[in-house]
Amino acid sequence: MNQTPETASNLLANPPPELQRILDDPRTTDEARQAVKEVSVVSPPPVQNGLASTPKEPNGTNHSGEGRLQIVNEHQEFTKQLSPYLDKWGLLDKGFAYDVVSVFGSQSTGKSTLLNRLFGTTFDVMDESKRQQTTKGIWMCPSTYGNTLVMDVEGTDGRERGEDQDFERKSALFSLASTEVLIVNLWEHQIGLYNGANMGLLKTVFEVNLGLFGGGGDSSKPKPQEKTLILFVIRDHVGATPVSNLTATLTQDMEKIWASLSKPSHLADATLSSYFDLSFATLPHKILMPEKFEDEVLELRRRFTDRSRSDYVFQPSYHKRIPADGVGFYMEGIWQQVLTNKDLDLPTQQELLAQFRCDELSAAVTEIFLASSKIVRKPVEAGQVVEGLGALMKDWLDTALGKFDRDASRYHAGVYQRKRLDLLTGLHASLSSLFLGQLKNLHKIETAKFSKDIVRGTKEVGYDFAKVVNEGSDNARQRFLDGAKEVKIDGTDWEYEHELALLDEDLKSIADRCRADETKKMVNTIERNVKRQLLEPVEVALSQPSVEMWNIVLKTYKQVNEDAEQSYLTKAKAYNCSEEENNAALLSLRARTWLSLRRKLEEQTSDATILATLRSTFEEKFRYDESGVPRVWKPEDDIESAFTKAKEETLSLLPIFASISPTSSSLLPTLPSPESTFDIESDPIPFDPSTAFVLLSPTKILSIESRFKREADAAYVEAKRSMVSSVAQIPLWMYGILIVLGWNEAMTVLFNPLYFAMILVLGASGYIILQLGLAGPLLQICKTVFYEVKRIATDKLREAFKELPENQKQQILNTPYLSNTLNDGLKNEERKKGDLINEKMIEK
Ligand SMILES: Nc1nc2c(ncn2[C@@H]2O[C@H](COP(=O)(O)OP(=O)(O)OP(=O)(O)O)[C@@H](O)[C@H]2O)c(=O)[nH]1
């Protein structure tokens, strides 16, 4: 609020209460009454838009005639008018030939009065009748006595601002940093007080000043321009306490607060005198001793104007070395630095209390909150997905914040809001680990479920792999998203996208792995089919050796191979296999089908199989005639030439088995590369072009040939024997003799009722046996019984023979029938042994 102008006459006619009190006081001397009138007369004019009109000058005219300027207003904005005003005041072109002085002190301690008296400035002076703040913000006015810029600063500790010390800190720091001389204005009775003498404020300001403007390097040697003179002006000095005592107290206080400053580490050893010079002045009571006051003011003014004096205040070392035309910019810069400095944002008592209580309340609710969240922490850490975790967390948060709001909202609103935010951030931070844990667990569980879904899906009949994978993946993703959204707390910056991306990667790799397995399974099935399809044609072809044999085999192989590849490609579409995967699978399939063929051929060209084939071919040629009828060798037949022909023709087929050799080489398949799992080291034959098509080595051919020849020879011998036996059969006339000689016996039997009945029974039995088709089995049983009886009888005979003395043995051996029977028994035994050995060899 700016003061309303009042003339001296008005004031004297209607003096304000304070003025009236002084005037009415009987102790007031005439001089004092006169001084009161003078004070009233010099009340300053009103201020408009930061620029006051030119006041009445108490001690001469204003330096520029352009009044004063509010350089920082109540809203802490720095004026843009400083340079134009410096120009108007005639100071802009002064270079370094100017000085800056400012004042610091409690509100209404006569700062403006002192400045007006010292420099002839026109700052507002308090209206005694209202007793309220006069100077708001920071004002500047040129001195009437020399090129001095004088700054009047809003007083500290004013009731208008109450606990808000923000502006007084900023303005004090600004004054300290931008001026050469800082006048600390204080009543004599304030000396020795801590807050009363603004020591707390000075301490803060010194501290920040040191941090902000203290400079770097060697703190013990500050640059001259960094120094500032602090001039203590002790007001209303009555003289009871000697000046030396007052100055000593102030010096001690200053040293004390300097020592207690928390200095930047590089300025830890900096002393007060490195940055500040202290000076002192006293002024008597302005109202009670006006003349003396004026004299002292005059004397003090000389310290600002008389360069010859030793106590001249504007020493070059205090000058900031800023040319006058840069002062506007420089001061604005300092103000901006001061404004943005956070160190000055010190809390008020109310704020301190709020901080303390809010911290306490915050700690209490956090403790309860942590205890609640502990229940789920273990399961989450153990990898479990806690159902409804999001709702639980929201509930804990609401409870904690509700309690905090109820108790803390009664305190300083700003602090409460700040602390609430801190609390919320802390609680969110504590919950974020649960959030992340839950996401990880969801991820883990969903990947496991996905694997199971695929396994289950691929077990179903006629499953579509791509469908199984897509459905499983979509379900897992959806479940994860539902869980993640549920556990995310509103108002947090928590994200689940990263975990979702990891889940997608895992699902894909599982699907890829399963697809690879499925493809392998499919290739295995196709391989089995190939084997089955090759089995019969190859066996048939190789059992009927001819020059066309390999053509048939290879054509079949080619066809089966093409079918297999086509079958794979058709099925692979459903698996979403890539081109690369398809190529790899086809290569593997080719290698396997080739190996299947090769193995089958190896099996079909084993010694025993080839021998069997040759034997049957030989038998066909030797034992059957051209029309396929079994031959009964007669004495007139040419067994030798038939045998030789059949043997040679059969042997000529043997080289066909030696290697896969079609009539046209174009039928030979291209050899595939073996699979990576195939042990090529231990079995290189199937994939080596020089051996892959060879089935029998020359040595083997020779061995088979010789074995075959032996067998063929045996067949020849048998044929010969059969011819002899056919020659040795009973002649027909023998049957005629038998009938003639046995006629009587037959009639006897026919006409005897007993024999006839027996014949009838036997005939009927024979008929029934024939009708039921039991003749064969019965005959077999009879044969078996006969042979068994014969074998037992022979064994018994042999045992009995062994036990006989040697001479009797010899006798029996000379008996033809008995010796034959015994020899037959022995031969049978040997033959059996030989057959066994033969069978074993064939098996091998
Ligand atoms: N006792 C006493 N009163 C004084 C003295 N100087 C000024 N006053 C009175 O103190 C009152 C305040 O004076 P101002 O000059 O406005 O004080 P200020 O410190 O500038 O006030 P703000 O700018 O509001 O902080 C006025 O009524 C002056 O008459 C002094 O030396 N002694």
UniProtKB/TrEMBL annotation:
<keyword id="KW-0256">Endoplasmic reticulum</keyword>
<keyword id="KW-0472">Membrane</keyword>
<feature type="compositionally biased region" description="Basic and acidic residues">
    <location>
        <begin position="21"/>
        <end position="36"/>
    </location>
</feature>
<dbReference type="InterPro" id="IPR027417">
    <property type="entry name" value="P-loop_NTPase"/>
</dbReference>
<dbReference type="Pfam" id="PF05879">
    <property type="entry name" value="RHD3_GTPase"/>
</dbReference>
<feature type="compositionally biased region" description="Polar residues">
    <location>
        <begin position="1"/>
        <end position="12"/>
    </location>
</feature>
<dbReference type="InterPro" id="IPR030386">
    <property type="entry name" value="G_GB1_RHD3_dom"/>
</dbReference>
<dbReference type="GO" id="GO:0003924">
    <property type="term" value="F:GTPase activity"/>
</dbReference>
<dbReference type="GO" id="GO:0016320">
    <property type="term" value="P:endoplasmic reticulum membrane fusion"/>
</dbReference>
<feature type="topological domain" description="Cytoplasmic">
    <location>
        <begin position="1"/>
        <end position="729"/>
    </location>
</feature>
<feature type="transmembrane region" description="Helical">
    <location>
        <begin position="723"/>
        <end position="743"/>
    </location>
</feature>
<dbReference type="InterPro" id="IPR008803">
    <property type="entry name" value="RHD3/Sey1"/>
</dbReference>
<keyword id="KW-0342">GTP-binding</keyword>
<dbReference type="Pfam" id="PF20428">
    <property type="entry name" value="Sey1_3HB"/>
</dbReference>
<feature type="topological domain" description="Cytoplasmic">
    <location>
        <begin position="775"/>
        <end position="844"/>
    </location>
</feature>
<feature type="region of interest" description="Disordered">
    <location>
        <begin position="1"/>
        <end position="66"/>
    </location>
</feature>
<feature type="domain" description="GB1/RHD3-type G">
    <location>
        <begin position="95"/>
        <end position="318"/>
    </location>
</feature>
<feature type="topological domain" description="Lumenal">
    <location>
        <begin position="751"/>
        <end position="753"/>
    </location>
</feature>
<dbReference type="GO" id="GO:0005525">
    <property type="term" value="F:GTP binding"/>
</dbReference>
<keyword id="KW-0547">Nucleotide-binding</keyword>
<keyword id="KW-0378">Hydrolase</keyword>
<keyword id="KW-1133">Transmembrane helix</keyword>
<keyword id="KW-0812">Transmembrane</keyword>
<dbReference type="InterPro" id="IPR046758">
    <property type="entry name" value="Sey1/RHD3-like_3HB"/>
</dbReference>
<feature type="binding site">
    <location>
        <begin position="105"/>
        <end position="112"/>
    </location>
    <ligand>
        <name>GTP</name>
    </ligand>
</feature>
<comment type="similarity">
    <text>Belongs to the TRAFAC class dynamin-like GTPase superfamily. GB1/RHD3 GTPase family. RHD3 subfamily.</text>
</comment>
<protein>
    <submittedName>
        <fullName>Protein SEY1</fullName>
    </submittedName>
</protein>
<dbReference type="GO" id="GO:0005789">
    <property type="term" value="C:endoplasmic reticulum membrane"/>
</dbReference>
<feature type="transmembrane region" description="Helical">
    <location>
        <begin position="755"/>
        <end position="774"/>
    </location>
</feature>
